[in-house]
Amino acid sequence: MPVDQHGDIWADGNIPVYCVVYDPDTRRLHWANATQQLRRSGPLNPPRFIGVSPNAVLNDSTMPSFVAQARRYVGRYRGRQAVLTHLSEMSGVEFDSTDHVLHFVNGFDEDLIFWKRPGDSLATLLMSAHGWEPYLVSLESLMRSKMTPPGVGDGDGSGPGSQWGDSDLSTAEDLELNRAEIMWVVSCFVSTQEADEPTECEGCPSCTGEEPVEHANIEADVLHDYVIARIVDRVESEPDLLRCSIQAMREEAELNPEILSELGPLEANRSVVRQVNKLSRATVTKSTDIEPEAFRLAVLYFIHRIYIGGPSLPLDEQVRIVWRVPEPESTPSQRVRNGGAPATRA
């Protein structure tokens, strides 16, 4: 659906705008959340069209889930949640209501978002000038060569356990931050650390002597490379998998409306769809071989859910994929990966 001159009104109006279109060939109605798509694109790169997914069908059976999704979306425009919703749509990141999320606009009208989970010593910076790529920072790494961090003595902070010398954390130079932006991030760290001051213990494992539970944890690039490798493995051995997966998704009785709203702009991008249609070992060996949007569309098409286990497990056991089309029964010798070792079925 063309946006024309409606972009500002649809993106920044008092209420969200949904588009409903009629397809005379299929005699079906389809819907899309125009406000959500426009806010995700941002004012600097507004789309000319609102993507409407052929999977987002509006009929008697899907009406209850559509109404429920619309009510949830409208509910996100109340109180503090309204701010989180706006920042989430602007950056493409889903924030939890308990997260520390702070916003800053510099002198060039560029947006910066400070994001830190309660109790964490590290934070994530999201910047419109860097295409909203997430950058992990600590107070020490960010000010490594700019100024002396509060509370740091004569040492260089590179001792064991210090985050000062961690090369994986971004610096002010890496992010091209000026002094005003650095001071804003410093104030974010200080204010969130004060908010995270410990309260009376309610029986944590360190106090009770209980064995701590291993939490799910995996690096994003490791997870993404594993997932795309599994998808390509199946596409190579099952040429009709894409069509069957899309059909299975369309037949799902309670397909998440959030997924349907995400499919619209992805399916409207011909380059993204083309990359998914041409998935093969010859074109893709890791997740960065395709655009992030193409990776996301592939996941939505092929995978129903992903479960992440503890980091002590082997990768094939740590990551459990629930496919839209179940894997066919096969022998271990038929499921050999590129490295030559038999793959453990997730």
Describe this structure in words.
The chain is α+β, with helices and mostly antiparallel strands. The protein contains 14 helices and nine strands. Strands 4-5-6-7 form a four-stranded antiparallel sheet, with helices on both faces. A three-stranded antiparallel sheet has the order 1-2-3. The longest helix has 18 residues, at about 220-235. The chain starts with 6 loop residues before the first helix and ends in a 23-residue tail after the last strand. Mean pLDDT is about 80; it is low at about 150-165 and about 330-345.
Give a concise summary.
The chain is of the alpha+beta class and 346 residues long. The protein has helices at residues 7-12, 34-41, 63-75, 79-91, 139-142, 172-175, 179-195, 205-208, 220-237, 241-251, 257-267, 270-277, 292-302, 315-318, and strands at residues 18-23, 28-33, 57-58, 100-105, 111-116, 123-127, 134-137, 303-308, 319-323. The radius of gyration is 23 Å and the shape is globular.
